[in-house]
């Protein structure tokens, strides 16, 4: 009996390690592909960098990146495996659902994760010790365009911001009479893509933004590729990931930053317009005053 329990636990840990390897490997490939993809789109004039003269280290901590994602997902994988050998596998549906239910799952998942992410992320920026111990490493990856920038020390950050939420999703699914694997895969994929896009530092046209967010990015006040990038330029702003609702509510939202060239241009053209107007009125008033005298 004891041997059977030990064997089951070992089997669960083994599955957890396998899950960790699959997720970290997939993350590694997707992140690299995402950054390289944006470089190709930039070369074709489809996307442009928010800060073109910013350094471009591109690849940082490739090994650390693997470990950071691997470690927390081993824990989640082990937890899933222990239930999997119960009856969760038998309640799994493999046939894809229709577009609408898949989109609803994706949208609701992103709304809920956005709330979770905002709360945890805000806490990390508000409590100094949490910031220094857990989140600071992530902000070493500043405005430089960098793939695989996650170092090993950030496992707790990934664990709290993402894996803990995935554990809640898993608990929800565990309690359902059935659950759909392709729908969960779609959610996980777009969550990953939105996260990668937010770190690339490229302005995306609307069609690409809609594509990369699975359509969720067309929701009013959804975040864009610029939103999280501004957070890395200036961490006082934009602590949510998919939408800007929470940041607007807590007055930490901005969609402009002086370090971003297009905003500078917008500021300077606006400033120029104001200057022109003030010069025009000043000239008019002066000439009228002169005629009155
Ligand atoms: Zn980030
Ligand atoms: Zn942050």
Automatic annotation (TrEMBL):
Pfam families: FA_hydroxylase
One GO cellular component, as annotated: membrane
Biological process annotations from GO: lipid biosynthetic process
Subcellular location: Membrane
Transmembrane segments: 12-30, 66-86, 98-119, 155-174
Primary location group: membrane
Keyword annotations from UniProtKB, A to Z: Membrane, Transmembrane, Transmembrane helix
Keyword Transport assigned: no
One MF annotation (Gene Ontology) recorded for this entry: oxidoreductase activity
Family that this chain belongs to: Belongs to the sterol desaturase family.
Record's protein name: Fatty acid hydroxylase domain-containing protein
Organism: Apatococcus lobatus
